[in-house]
Every structure is written in structure tokens, then in C-alpha cells.
Amino acid sequence: MEQKNNFAEGSVAKNIVRMAVPMTVAQILNLLYNLVDRIYIGHIPGADSLALTGVGLTFPIVSMIVAFAGLFGMGGAPLCSIARGRGEERQAQAIMQNSFWMLLFTGVSLTVAGYLIKRPLLYGLGASDATYPYASAYLDIYLLGCLFVMIGLGMNPYINAQGFGKTGMVTVALGAVINIVLDPLFIFVFHMGVRGAALATVIAQFCSALWVVLFLTGNKPILRLKFCLGIPDWSIVGQITVLGVSSFIMNFTNSIVQIVCNRQLQFYGGDLYVGVMTVLNSIREVLTMVVIGTANGAQPVISFNYGAKRYDRVKQGIRFMTIVSIIYTVAAWAITLAFPEYFIRLFNAESDLLKAGVPAMHIYFFGFCFMALQFSGQSTFQALGEAKYAITFSLFRKIVIVVPLTILLPKIPAIGLHGVFLAEPISNLVGGCASFFTMLWVVWKKKLQEK
């Protein structure tokens, strides 16, 4: 098993593909948790687009929960892979164990906090009196599964870090299949509406979390999870947190962007345009899954070889990840230009939504290929433990570019409401190029050359 999961041996491209394919499938299936909910919710009889808009208002909260899972999951997994590459199995074990306890504590804390501030939070996110009942009903049940999200999403990277990409895929596939089966049953057969969608998601998340725990405590993994009581090693927790801040900021800033966008769209266009953004965000999440899966598949391979001091293989991994990501995003951009109505109709076929959504979609996805540069640069920094750069570019793209542009562009008369959608392609171009070319200088020309 050790030999099979030794990323310093064999073709770098094949190692990445072996990890990336199941992880890409996992990313796509993971998206189905919320995507299937949105499709069914958008077709609830009598709810029109208000139910879809109401659930869309909870996305920033869901992103925040995912951000905390990534803080300890994506923060610790690269460090775990680097330690494995160096042959430091005990250190790798300690990193995984400390992450688990922090995920448990954070999951409980977020659940309590969510219920305490739910009402002011949803209205602060742009809810109206018409959409609040739907958002509140969904969130009341979704928060019950917060702990399961933390364990399932937070610990799955440690399965992938040990080379068990297919097992990591099953973690997500199990939950996705359960969610798809239960959604129509709870929503339409039991007439539970948005509450049924949330309940199906919580049950699915529980099953995924249970699978992760059973696998990591079994005999197959190289590093086993233990339930022994003990005091966390705060020095290790600190290292995990510092690197995980990058992943946290990426997800957390997504929440901030969604909040700002929803408020701007509510002000300039009303509930209809909040619904349009909900649909566009859903489509973007689908189209970025291959890029995210490729980056996540490359990360343990790059980290392991960096720990093993195989720097030529590190460069090969970065090159392969970047080329695949660019080719794919160019193709995805072409598809959005050719078939915008098809994508929108998956969620809702109302004429008003289609009329507003098609031009918004053309703007929102313009220059989509530059997003590949952002992911390639960001993933490389994180894989090598370069927390400073990873954090900087996480903040730069969303907070420095997207948020100010989302506020300022709609004030220009010639642009108006469409300025909210225009902020995304501008950030892809500026932020993606800044992240990628800095990575080439810092990592490719400097760090690996010196090594």
C-alpha cells in the first residue's frame, strides 16, 4: 500500500490523473447536494422563483460553513502529504488527528451561532418579507447537519492525501445519491417544500461523514484516525490554521461577494435579479468542478514530491495542472456562449428569468478561461505550504477587486445593474494573471531553482 501511494514513483501526469479523475467526479457529485435542491425548489408548485431566491440567500452561510471545513481540511492535508514525502509518518498522523478535533469543536460552535443570529443574518444578506420564510425554513434544518459537513468535507482531504482518491470519491458519491433520491420524495411526495430539500441534504451529509469516519478508523488507510482523549498540539494546530486560512478566505470571501451581490441586485433589480445570480452561481459551480478537481488531484502529488525533494517532478505537476485547466475553461466558456438558455432552464423556465438571465450570463462568463490561472497559482502555493502568497491572492481577487467593483460599477449610468455581473470577469483576468505569474516567479524561478 505504501508503494502504491508513493507519488515520487511513476509518471507525474498519471499520478495526477489517478487522483484528479475521482476527485473531479467527487467535486461534481458534491455540487449535486445544493444543485439538485435548487432544481427541485425552482419547480415547487405555487412558489414561482421566490423559493429559489430564498434558498439562494442561504448560500453565503453555507459557504461560510464550508470555509471552516476547508480551514482544517485543506490546511492540514498538504502538510500531511509533505510529511509523508519526507517519511515522517508520525507527524502526518498528528496533523490529521489535530484537524479532526478542531473540526468537531468548530462544527458544534457554528450550529449554535447559526440559530442565535439567523433572522438578522438573513435580512442582512438581502432577504425580503416575501423570501425570508423560504430562507428561514431551509436554514433551520440545514444547520442541524453542520457537524456532518465539517467531518465529511474536512476529513475527506486526508483520505485523498494518502492516495485513496476513489475512496474519497465514494464519500461524496454516497451523499449525492442519497440526496438525489430523497429530494423529490420529501419535496413533492411528502409536500415538505424547502424543508424537505434541507432534510434530504442533512441525511446525505450524515451518511458521508459516517463513511469518512469508518474508513479512517479501519485497517486500510496508512494513517488511522483515533478517538483517544488528549490535549491538542497547538503548535500543529497553528501550522494547519495558517495554511488553511487561504482555503478559508477563498470560501469566506465567496460569502462576502454573494452578500454584496445580493444586496446590490436587490437594490437595483429586486428579487428577480437575485434569482438570476443564484442561477449563474450554480452554473459557475458546475463548470469549475473539473478545474477544482484537477487542482485538488495535483495537490497531494506536488506536496509529496516537494517533501521528497523531487523538484523536477514538482515542476511537471504544476505544468500538467495548468495546461489541462486552461484547455478545459476555454471549452467551458464557448459552451456558455452557445447555449445560455439551456443552462438557465434547468433551474427555472419563467420568461422574465430567461430574459434577464441570458445577457447577464454572457457578461458573467466572459473570459472564463482566466479563472484557470487563479486556481493553478493558488493551488501551487497551498501545495508547497506557501501560506503568505496563498492568503494574499485569496484576498486580492475577491476583496480588492470583486467587492469594490460590485459596488461601484452599477453607479455608472452606461453600465447600471449589469456592473454587478461584470465584476466577475474583470477579477478573473486581473486576479488570475497576478496569482499565476507571481507563482511562476516565486516558485518556479526562485524557490525550486534555489533548491
Fold topology:
Elements: H1 12-41, H2 50-56, H3 59-85, H4 89-116, H5 118-124, H6 132-142, H7 146-161, H8 165-189, H9 193-216, H10 234-268, H11 271-287, H12 289-307, H13 311-338, H14 340-345, H15 351-364, H16 371-383, H17 387-408, H18 419-450
Topology pattern, helix = H, strand = E: HHHHHHHHHHHHHHHHHH
Shape: globular
Q: Terminal Cα separation, in Å?
A: 29 Å
Helix content: over 70%
How many domain regions?
Answer: 1
Major β-sheet, in short? none
Instruction: Write down the overall mean pLDDT.
Output: 85
Q: Compute the CA-based radius of gyration.
A: 21 Å
Supply the number of helical segments: 18
Which band does the percent of strand residues land in?
under 5%
Number of beta-strand segments? 0
Look at the helices and sheets and give the structural class: mainly alpha
Low-confidence stretches: none
What does this molecule look like?
This protein is mainly alpha-helical. The protein has one domain (12-450). It is 80% helix and 0% strand. The protein has 18 helices and no strands. The chain has helices at residues 12-41, 50-56, 59-85, 89-116, 118-124, 132-142, 146-161, 165-189, 193-216, 234-268, 271-287, 289-307, 311-338, 340-345, 351-364, 371-383, 387-408, 419-450. Helix 3 (59-85) runs antiparallel to helix 10 and helix 10 (234-268) packs across helix 11. The chain is globular, with a radius of gyration of 21 Å. The two termini are 29 Å apart. The model has no long low-confidence stretch (mean pLDDT 85).
Give the tags.
mainly alpha, globular, single chain, 451 residues
